[in-house]
């Protein structure tokens, strides 16, 4: 059965046994994993990164771009927005090919320097920002 929503679960590492309808998010490994929302039980891994997925959390979880399981038999294609699954038309073989070509092109570009801060420091920084506490040397928060 098709899922209409996913329950986000923040976890340090991704468990071996995944529950359907759950989106496991590991900031430590900068990735999220869920079972394909169509109910086919395919494990869908969505790493976070400039050339991968953008993860947004505002109390609900959104992932961009859409999840396209064009390599799987189900060919399901959906957006995860605010914990909800927005179903899109199934992916054609051609579109899968184009997407994987694009992926390859993106991944052959020189890697961007990553933050050298440890993961907990990045989360801490985000928490600080989330609470709008002006950081040292920063003239307040411009977003009100
Ligand atoms: Zn599926």
Automatic annotation (TrEMBL):
Pfam entry (one): BubE
Superkingdom, natural source: Bacteria
InterPro entries: DUF6527 (IPR045384)
Name under which the protein is recorded: Uncharacterized protein
Lineage: Bacteria, Bacillati, Actinomycetota, Actinomycetes, Mycobacteriales
